[in-house]
């Protein structure tokens, strides 16, 4: 498919699936809708990946995808599943020192980010920003997450492991409110990308693993391996043995190194872990192994704790 054919396909989706715009439509309908589009969605990703140098060819396509996002409903999920693939293109351009090719994708990320941080969801007229809360149990008090007796922290009887009966034993960590961002730059780049990945991770069960699972794994391998030569496939052989049939992808070691941060890797791990069980285990394990090696190099202890727990 060429640029015009892809534009016609996106226009056809917008015109012939208006019932999917309704946010009250069931999740099963969303999933069926996205699954029907998988073959052409893969062609769309391949075309954008191969032609990102030709801005005049891909700009109309990106604009149509953004318009679909603003329709909400299943169209929002259609757009979210493409974001990891767009991040691959973005980081590919950076690794090849093609900064002028990234502006289109930076603006796209920024537009989605400023909608996703709204407290009442994308398209809301209320500009109140989202605040996310995470409840963390005290390590010395029983909860549904752990038993302190097994950790050797306390002696004697303990109460039932239920956080609902002991709310005072929980710490609440608030993330946000997220601030609107007007310009994408080096200072706020990972703030935007991390929030987008978090939104994708919270909806992984609704997105086709053939699209989002594969792209997250490639993204993880790309950002961690650019400029590095890591040992290959040790984890695959250990876990899968001879049944491993790893997909062959490009060698990124000769490219420019990509700076990363711990939160970005943590969000990638969520998607990679999902892909181990729902997409392609050998491919996802390679991505996990790459994250582990890069975390060792960067001395990111919080990431190593997670990767070690998954690996062992």
UniProtKB/TrEMBL annotation:
This is CCR4-NOT transcription complex subunit 11. It comes from Strongyloides stercoralis (Threadworm). Belongs to the Hyccin family. It is found in: Cell membrane; Cytoplasm, Cytosol. GO terms for biological process: phosphatidylinositol phosphate biosynthetic process; protein localization to plasma membrane. The keyword Transmembrane helix applies. The chain crosses the membrane at residues 74-94. InterPro entries: Hyccin. PANTHER family: GH21176P, HYCCIN RELATED. GO terms for cellular component: cytosol; plasma membrane. Its main location: membrane. Keywords: Cell membrane, Cytoplasm, Membrane, Transmembrane, Transmembrane helix. Pfam families: Hyccin (PF09790).
């Amino acid at each position: 498919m060429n640029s015009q054919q892809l534009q016609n396909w996106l226009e056809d989706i917008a015109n012939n699936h208006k019932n999917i715009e309704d946010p009250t439509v069931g999740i099963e309908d969303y999933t069926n809708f996205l699954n029907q589009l998988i073959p052409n969605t893969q062609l769309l990703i391949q075309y954008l990946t191969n032609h990102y140098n030709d801005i005049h060819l891909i700009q109309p396509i990106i604009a149509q995808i953004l318009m679909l996002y603003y329709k909400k409903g299943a169209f929002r999920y259609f757009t979210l599943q493409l974001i990891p693939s767009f991040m691959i293109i973005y980081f590919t351009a950076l690794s090849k020192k093609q900064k002028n090719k990234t502006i289109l994708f930076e603006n796209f990320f920024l537009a989605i980010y400023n909608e996703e941080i709204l407290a009442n969801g994308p398209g809301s007229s209320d500009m109140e920003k989202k605040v996310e809360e995470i409840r963390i149990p005290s390590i010395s008090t029983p909860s549904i997450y752990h038993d302190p007796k097994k950790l050797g922290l306390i002696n004697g009887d303990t109460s039932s492991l239920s956080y609902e009966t002991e709310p005072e034993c929980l710490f609440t960590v608030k993330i946000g409110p997220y601030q609107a961002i007007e310009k994408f730059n080096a200072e706020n780049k990972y703030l935007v990308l991390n929030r987008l990945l978090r939104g994708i991770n919270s909806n992984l069960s609704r997105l086709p693993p053939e699209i989002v699972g594969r792209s997250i794994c490639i993204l993880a391998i790309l950002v961690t391996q650019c400029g590095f030569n890591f040992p290959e496939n040790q984890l695959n052989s250990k876990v899968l043995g001879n049944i491993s049939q790893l997909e062959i992808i490009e060698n990124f070691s000769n490219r420019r190194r990509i700076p990363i941060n711990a939160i970005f890797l943590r969000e990638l791990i969520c998607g990679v872990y999902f892909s181990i069980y729902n997409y392609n285990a050998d491919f996802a394990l390679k991505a996990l192994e790459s994250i582990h090696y890069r975390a060792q190099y960067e001395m990111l202890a919080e990431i190593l704790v997670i990767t070690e727990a998954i690996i062992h």
